[in-house]
Amino acid sequence: MAGRGDFPKSVKAMAAMNSDTSSDTSGDRIFLVVVDDTPEMNVALRFATRRAQKTNGRVALLYVIEPADFQHWMAVEDMMEKERRMEAEEVLKKHSDTIMEFGGAMPMLYIRDGRPQDALLDLLDEEPGISILVLGADTGPKGPGPLVSACAGKLAGKLHIPVTIVPGSLKDEEIDALT
């Protein structure tokens, strides 16, 4: 798993499990969720976790660290990069715990640097076992979100897996009923 960095012990253990078992998941459905801090991502995560449970699949989580605009002092930039990586690890740990609380299998974890669309396409090329991309759509007036818009638009022809777009307004009971 590229870009692991200095994970805390619990995340290191999960990452090691992922690298040990990634070749064993060729027959499983792997539901990829791109992690961010939006409410609709939580809806997508619950949907993916429930679908994975019902199909004996697994969930994979992708956290993309976008480049910082700050480049004045190298030492400060390095410190900011370490802080962003630590935040990514903490967020993935929190969502991994949530998946495990639902009774799901240990998720596969990926941290990548760059633009979300590029990181997503690169990961899908590197991990052919990922079978479904699950995204949550914002239902507000600003539109569904940049990644959902890109996947339904200009990236659609570049994706080699189906995309499930889950309305971000769904309640837990509605998700459970759908899956």
Q: What would the keywords be for this entry?
A:
single chain; 179 residues; alpha/beta; Rossmann fold; 5-stranded parallel β-sheet; 6 helices; globular; disordered N terminus
> How large is the share of residues in beta strands?
15-25%
Unreliable residue runs: 1-26
Distance between the ends? 29 Å
Mean pLDDT: 84
CATH homologous superfamily label: HUPs
Largest sheet descriptor: 5 strands, parallel
Give the count of structural domains: 1
| H-E order | HEHEHEHEHEH
CATH class: Alpha Beta
CATH topology description = Rossmann fold
- The tally of helices reads 6
* Range of helix content: 40-55%
Shape: globular
Number of strands: 5
Report on the architecture of this protein.
This protein is an alpha/beta fold. The chain has a single domain, classed as Rossmann fold, CATH 3.40.50. 46% of the residues lie in helices and 17% in strands. The chain has six helices and five strands, in the order αβαβαβαβαβα. It has helices spanning 9-21, 39-54, 74-101, 116-126, 146-152, 172-178; strands at 30-35, 58-65, 108-113, 132-137, 163-167. It has a five-stranded parallel β-sheet with strand order 3-2-1-4-5, with helices on both faces. Helix 2 (39-54) links the parallel strand 1 and strand 2. Helix 2 (39-54) packs parallel to helix 6. It is globular. The two termini are 29 Å apart.
